[in-house]
Design brief:
The complex is a heterodimer of chains A (about 625) and B (about 325).
Chain A lengths: L3 E2 L6 E2 L2 E9 L4 H15 L2 E7 L14 E9 L12 E4 L2 H7 L8 E5 L5 H7 L15 E5 L1 H10 L5 H5 L2 H12 L5 H10 L4 H20 L7 E2 L8 E7 H16 L3 E5 L6 H8 L7 E4 L3 H13 L3 E6 L1 H17 L3 E7 L16 H6 L9 E3 L5 H16 L2 E7 H5 L1 E5 L19 E2 L5 E2 L24 E3 L14 H16 L11 E2 L5 E6 L2 H14 L4 E6 L1 E3 L5 H5 L4 E6 L4 H10 L4 E4 L8 H11 L2
Parallel strand pairs in A: 2-9, 3-6, 6-7, 7-8, 11-12, 11-13, 13-14, 14-16, 15-16, 22-23, 22-25, 25-26
Antiparallel strand pairs in A: 1-2, 3-5, 4-5, 10-17, 15-24, 18-19, 21-23
Helix pairs in contact in A: 1-6, 1-7, 2-3, 4-6, 4-8, 6-8, 9-10, 9-14, 11-12, 17-20
Chain B lengths: L24 H12 L10 E5 L14 E4 L5 H11 L4 E7 H7 L1 H10 L3 E7 L34 H7 L4 E6 L3 H13 L4 E6 L11 H4 L1 H7 E4 L6 E2 L5 E6 L2 E6 H4 L15 H7 L9 E8 L5 H16 L4 H5 L4 E4 L1
Parallel strand pairs in B: 1-2, 1-3, 3-4, 4-6, 5-6, 7-11
Antiparallel strand pairs in B: 5-11, 8-9, 9-10
The chains are: A alpha/beta (about 625), B alpha/beta (about 325).
Bound molecules: iron/sulfur cluster.
The site of iron/sulfur cluster has 11 residues of chain B, from loops.
Chain lengths: ~625, ~325
């Protein structure tokens, strides 16, 4: 952090602060983090967030398993990650301190609710002595506030019952942190009034708690710890703070508008994808039909049925759901119908880590169907980028009449960043053509419709039921090209397998060339896909600042690869691939281009930090 | 009011060679359907047959309509998506007992309870045909097949009971030996708003030949088939001498002479409570006992697609047609200049 002193209000200014709010699941830390983020966004900072919650909805109170955390990185310049080590840790109970202290930077600031550090909670967290009273936190700046009792005091005169007042203590924490880091109060107050409209006592309690937190900062002589982060110089425009699942949902809606077709979402609830189902189900006035199916298989089946009927069929899920959908995806490959399959990846195998991130489903996206069943794969690289990635997935599905796998992950799904809203006029066009005329002649010379006649993109006609004269039958059995008639002929099967492979590869011909960020004359190329984009961008920036020449390319298309990828890979001595798996893209690159690509793996359920990548890239390329 | 152009059986017959085993009951069902379609006042292009996998599932290939031969068990799910997206279509689902009661059992149950506008034909031959003769979820206990050399130990499903338990609004049974009855059931099922299921006893002459002979053969029918007719006492027999009474909710076969015609149960397919229909469905424990055919239940409940459309219309009414510019600004925004 580079410090400067602002002479007018004596606030120390820093370029950026990373704050981690941690508490029990019931302590409202997600909400607190979210409010702090919103206030910072409105203040004009650039930011990135990382919410982390336990898989259990109500883990036992006070335990390590029940800790829920929200990390936010605010900055006065463009940033791409939720930060490395937090500068500030807000710990609402001993378990939160115990589980997250290791993440805090050396010498960082700890803000605790001292009321929660009583015997029972200490024991539950596994503390033998109270860390607030022994010397164990000596290396840190400790701000100890009796948040529970001060909140109760502040609420007492309002007539709020102590038990209800207890629920407002997260607003005390928010008030205190907002005072320490000079966040404007107004947005939070407006939010409280809107959110709890009609519950006057709750509004009053939360406001009182917030102000008590503010006042605690003023009176406890914490001025020396006060910092602020100036607004970032972002490009002019209208901004909103968006998470990946919302951006992805909106991208799908936008794509439907661009194609002029209704959306049909068939989905089954699964973490961390359910929010897309929730979001899309709110937008029926866009002609969006959402269907909560009886299982993952019915979810994809219904979407495919809707696609057959001329809608944009979509199914959303996470890894375990993709495993169940595999057979239907094979059918979609065989039927050559548009379908968008969204995989919000999470830690696996099996139930794995439902609420934690991982990106280990790339091989499943590539090969997770029986037979040779290729489908295009599109990956999103940041929360806001989920919007563009969704449009691209729909575009490919519709133009090439194929199922498309859209990969996001738990980190993108829930993480947020400010997004400069695009102009609706700038969205790519998606042309749809439903045929209305016959296209073949049968043996007797009569005009007939053949479902597997291809256009220049090798896409077959999307002839939808209801179209006069184009009645035809399609199915999963091998068929002849052109007529679509069932054929078990060996040579025909070989022809069709190769054709299905070729038509997907051919999509690459019309993809834009990849753009390299960084030093063209570098010896090191970092190749990324998915949510590693933020950490790679930040790490590459740091390496270059320190004098190392590095180039970075992030892949939007994982199948087929962009046409110039092979040529790019050949230019660099070192090709390094950070991945949240054990090297799946690395294997694909090695297999496809015979380059000595080296993986940097992380599979802890957490995204890469830039600092980790800087070290790893240096090590790998030594 | 007739809107569809006049057609004949030939118009509804595709150019594909039919590939069932000679003598298979599927042929007579196909013919019944192709002969019926010209009478239904529907257009070929508005008609879709969706099937799963199995012998029965070849059906769509032979109808000159839109059709999809999908994957094992999933036809009701795929058809649900199509019917939701396109309420203007007539969507038929065709499958066998393995397809729709075993691997796809879950989808069938949910399609029925949702009351989505599908006409579902369940060809029940009590065997797996396409995989060459394993026992199915409707095979009787003790059945010896390739996979049950010592006899099946599985309790079979009664598809009619199952459908009624799943809250189906239209449930009927017919058999492949009686074209007129099949057509009547198909016609009624097609006219029904919502999910309609028709169980068709179908002879697999290769792996389970004669499974229904005891009840469906011409000379057995009078004694063994109980025709359910709405508003009529339930009576059957060569001389109409037998009938059905309800004893404490249980259906029982009686001699009319013994109990008197007044005591016979009068069939009401529109009864809101499905328990009487369920009691009737329990009558045929095996192929040695008289078996009811006809419409067990035909009640009205809002069709799923209508509810979907109503919500879309309501959302439009409340918020106006979707506005992308506004959607992007629906969360808090701020300006940077
Ligand atoms: S195996 Fe049985 S059900 Fe299948 S086509 Fe042959 S006779 Fe018909």
């Amino acid at each position: 952090m580079t410090d400067t002193v602002d002479s007018t209000n004596e606030l120390r200014e820093v370029e950026r602060i990373i704050i981690r709010f941690a508490g029990d699941s019931g302590d409202g830390m997600q909400l607190t983090g979210d409010r702090f983020t919103s206030a910072s966004a409105l203040f004009g900072n650039d930011l990135a967030t990382l919410p982390e919650f336990p898989a259990e909805i109500r883990a036992p109170a006070g335990t390590l398993a029940g800790v829920s955390a929200f990390q936010v990185h605010i900055s006065d310049h463009d940033i791409t990650t939720p930060g490395d080590a937090p500068n500030v840790l807000v710990a609402m109970n001993p378990a939160a301190l115990k589980s997250d202290l290791g993440k805090l930077e050396p010498g960082g600031t700890i803000i605790v609710n001292s009321d929660a550090f009583e015997e029972r909670n200490l024991a539950k967290a596994g503390y033998e002595s109270n860390p607030l009273e022994d010397d164990s936190l000596a290396g840190y700046t400790l701000i100890s506030a009796p948040m529970t009792s001060l909140t109760k005091d502040a609420c007492a005169e309002l007539g709020v019952k102590p038990r209800d007042a207890d629920r407002s203590k997260n607003f005390f924490a928010l008030g205190l942190v907002s005072w320490l880091y000079a966040r404007p109060e107004e947005p939070t107050m407006i939010w409280i009034r809107e959110k709890f409209r009609g519950k006057d006592l709750v509004i009053a309690a939360n406001e009182a708690a917030y102000r008590a937190g503010n006042a605690f900062g003023e009176t406890a002589e914490l001025a020396a710890s006060r910092l602020t982060v100036r607004p970032a110089r972002l490009a002019p425009g209208t901004y909103t703070n968006i998470n990946g699942n919302t951006a992805l949902s909106w991208g799908l809606i936008a794509a439907g508008q661009q194609a002029g077709l209704p959306l049909f979402l068939g989905s089954y609830p699964i973490t961390p994808a359910s929010d897309i189902l929730h979001e899309l189900s709110k937008h029926k006035n866009f002609g969006v039909r959402t269907f909560q199916a009886e299982d993952e298989i019915a979810a994809v089946g219904s979407a495919l049925g809707a696609s057959y009927g001329g809608h944009i069929g979509i199914t959303t899920t996470s890894g375990p759901g993709i495993a169940l959908k595999g057979e239907t995806l094979g059918l979609a490959v065989s039927l050559e119908l548009p379908l968008v399959v969204v995989n919000i990846q999470r830690g696996g195998p099996s139930t794995g880590l439902p609420t934690k991130t991982e990106a280990a489903d790339l091989m499943m996206a590539m090969y997770g169907r029986h037979g040779e069943a290729p489908m295009p794969i599109v990956a999103a690289s940041s929360p806001a980028d989920c919007f563009d990635a969704a449009i691209e997935a729909v575009r490919i599905a519709v133009q090439y009449r194929t199922p498309v796998m859209l990969l996001s992950d738990g980190y993108l799904a829930n993480g947020t960043e400010p997004w400069r809203l695009p102009d609706v006029e700038s969205f790519p066009t998606i042309d749809v053509e439903f045929p209305s005329k016959v296209n073949g002649l049968d043996e007797e010379g009569r005009e007939v419709f053949w479902p597997y006649v291809r256009n220049e993109d090798m896409a077959r006609p999307w002839a939808i039921p209801g179209t006069e004269g184009l009645m035809h039958r399609i199915g999963g059995i091998e068929k002849r090209d052109g007529t679509g008639n069932i054929s078990y002929d060996p040579a025909n099967h070989e022809f069709m397998v190769r054709l299905r492979d070729e038509r997907i590869r051919k999509i690459a011909e019309k993809l834009p060339p990849l753009e390299i960020v960084g030093d063209e004359d570098a010896e090191i190329l970092v190749v990324g896909w998915g949510s590693t984009w933020g950490a790679i961008t930040s790490a590459v920036g740091r390496l270059r600042k320190a004098g190392t020449k590095v180039a970075h390319v992030q892949l939007r298309h994982l199948h087929p690869f962009a046409p110039n990828l092979g040529e790019i890979l050949g230019r660099y001595r070192h090709v390094v691939v950070p991945e949240m798996n054990l090297g799946q893209l690395t294997k694909l690159l090695r297999a496809e281009y015979l380059v000595d690509a080296k993986v940097i793996s992380k599979v802890s359920g957490q995204p890469f930090t830039a600092a980790e990548l800087v070290t790893a890239i240096e090590e790998v390329t030594q | 009011m007739s809107t569809a152009p006049a057609t004949t059986k030939k118009d509804w017959t595709s150019d594909q060679e039919v590939r069932w085993c000679p003598g298979c009951g599927d042929y007579s069902i196909l013919t019944a359907m192709q002969l019926l379609m010209p009478e239904l006042d529907v257009r070929r292009e508005d008609t879709v047959f969706i099937s799963g996998i199995g012998c029965a599932a070849r059906f769509p290939y032979y109808m000159n309509t839109y059709g999809m031969h999908s994957i094992h068990g999933r036809a009701p799910a795929i058809a649900t998506g199509l019917a939701m997206a396109r309420p203007d279509l007539n969507v038929w689902v065709v499958g066998g007992d393995g397809d729709m009661l075993s691997i796809g059992g879950n989808h069938l149950l949910h399609a029925l309870r949702r009351n989505i506008n599908l006409t579902i034909l369940l060809f029940n031959n009590q065997i797996y045909g396409l995989t060459k003769g394993q026992y199915s979820p409707t095979s009787e206990v003790g059945k010896v097949t390739k996979s049950t050399p010592m006899g099946s130990i599985d309790q079979p499903y009664n598809p009619i009971s199952l459908a009624l338990g799943a809250e189906a609004t239209f449930v009927a049974r017919t058999h492949d030996m009686d074209r007129a009855h099949m057509q009547e059931m198909f016609r009624r099922a097609h006219a029904h708003q919502g999910s309609a299921i028709v169980e068709v006893f179908q002879n697999c002459n290769v792996f389970n030949d004669g499974a229904f002979n005891t009840i469906t053969k011409k000379d057995a029918r009078d004694a063994m088939l109980i025709n359910l007719t709405h508003g009529e006492p339930v009576r059957f027999g060569v001389d109409n001498e037998r009938g059905v009474v309800l004893d404490n909710g249980v259906a029982r076969i009686v001699d009319v002479a013994e109990v008197g015609a007044d005591r016979l149960h009068v069939h009401d397919e529109t009864a809101p409570d499905p328990s009487v229909a369920f009691a009737l469905s329990r009558l045929a424990e095996d192929r040695e006992s008289p078996t009811p055919v006809g419409v067990f239940r035909a009640v009205e409940r809002t069709e799923y697609g209508r509810s979907v459309a109503a919500q879309l219309a309501a959302a439009n009414q409340e918020r106006g047609p979707g506005d992308m510019h506004g959607l992007l600004r629906s969360l808090p925004t701020w300006e940077v200049s």
